[in-house]
Design a protein that fits this description.
With 161 residues, the chain is of the alpha/beta class. The protein has helices spanning 3-16, 36-45, 65-74, 99-109, 129-139, 141-145, 150-153, and strands at residues 29-30, 50-55, 58-64, 87-88, 93-94, 113-117, 123-128.
């Protein structure tokens, strides 16, 4: 397979795969009134990089490890409500959007995670870079496993004069 045909195949795969076909990461839902400290504890205890913030079943925000770090750096009180540190009205995708579109949003917006909504707008989970990487490894295992490690690809001795 040529490099160009591989690119075409990859693009076709990403454009034909819907986000809902992936194994989405289900994240705990918090309320905007929950404390900053409780969000930190939940994310740390469950080893999650984000939590969805919902009000009456509707997504109103997302709190990520970046939000947590910014809040800590800014000296936000641990008892402060989550709405003071969360990212309000985050960019989302639906389970029917293509993986290609989700990756494009992640790339252009600099996002590592996107909330996934169902047809009624209720949160279904999160698609993240790790999930996308796992999908690619699953479909291109041979290409991934045949790559030299960084240690093997780095010259140890100078060559030439």
């Amino acid at each position: 397979m040529t490099e160009r045909s591989g690119e075409v195949q990859l693009k076709a795969l990403l454009q034909s795969t819907q986000v809902g076909q992936l194994t989405l990461k289900v994240r705990h839902q918090l309320a905007p009134s929950d404390s900053f400290g409780s969000a930190m504890a939940l994310m740390r205890n469950r080893s999650h990089g984000c939590a969805l913030v919902c009000q009456e079943g509707t997504l109103v925000g997302i709190v990520t490890e970046r939000d947590i770090l910014h809040g800590l750096h800014s000296g936000i009180d641990r008892d402060a409500p989550l709405e003071s540190v969360m990212t309000s009205q985050p960019i989302t995708v639906t389970s029917r959007d293509t993986l290609f579109d989700a990756i494009a949003l992640m790339d252009t917006g600099g996002y590592r995670r996107l909330p996934v909504l169902d047809d009624e707008g209720a949160p279904e989970g999160v698609v993240d870079v790790k999930t996308v990487t796992g999908f690619l490894v699953e479909h291109y295992a041979e290409a991934v496993h045949n790559q030299a490690s960084q240690a093997e690809a780095t010259a140890r001795n100078r060559e030439g004069a």
